[in-house]
Design a protein that fits this description.
Pfam families: HATPase_c_2. This is ATP-binding protein. One of its GO terms (molecular function) is ATP binding. By secondary structure, the chain is an alpha+beta fold. It has three helices and five strands; from the N terminus they run βααββαββ. A five-stranded antiparallel beta sheet has the order 1-2-3-5-4, covered by helices on one side. Strand 4 and strand 5 form a beta hairpin. The longest helix is centred in the first third of the chain and has 18 residues. The protein is globular, with a radius of gyration of 15 Å. The protein starts with 8 loop residues before the first strand and ends in an 11-residue tail after the last strand.
């Protein structure tokens, strides 16, 4: 293989900040990953991250939006959701008890994904949450922890 050739494939999707767009994001992810054993985990992660963007940031306001990126290589599936910000606080992974009604979503994502990273957006005040699923890891195995 030539040194400048990549086996990575990358897709992007921008969605208005309406609740029904979460189902669109799930379908989009499922269509791209059709046949992958990690497709359903990826769909669940995209659903949670997209919902968080709409519910907890300016993405869910009248003119808001959120943006998805999906990168696939033979080793990893990386899913990123970038929100419009507006909260003044960064998303954080919390592990709540069973009685908690809120704050469990990113904790759930961190259990499903092999790695989760949260970065402030270079443009505006939003954040990007990226979850990675390693293709060679067995379910429930988290080698980076």
């Amino acid at each position: 293989m030539h040194e400048y050739t990549s086996t990575a494939r990358v897709w992007g999707l921008s969605c208005p900040g309406f609740p029904e767009e979460v189902s669109r994001a799930r379908r989009w992810t499922r269509d791209i990953l059709r046949g992958s054993p990690l497709a359903e985990d990826a769909v669940l992660i995209v659903s949670e991250l997209s919902s968080n963007a709409i519910l907890h940031t300016a993405s869910g306001q009248a003119s808001g939006s959120f943006h998805l990126a999906l990168a696939v290589t033979p080793q990893v599936i990386a899913l990123s959701v970038t929100d419009d910000g507006g909260t003044g606080t960064a998303p954080k992974i919390e592990h709540q008890d069973q009685e908690a009604e809120h704050g469990r979503g990113l904790g759930m994502v961190s259990v499903i994904a092999h790695r989760v990273a949260i970065h402030s957006s270079q443009v505006g005040l939003g954040y990007t949450v990226t979850a990675e699923l390693f293709t060679d890891a067995r379910r429930g195995e988290h080698p980076c922890r």
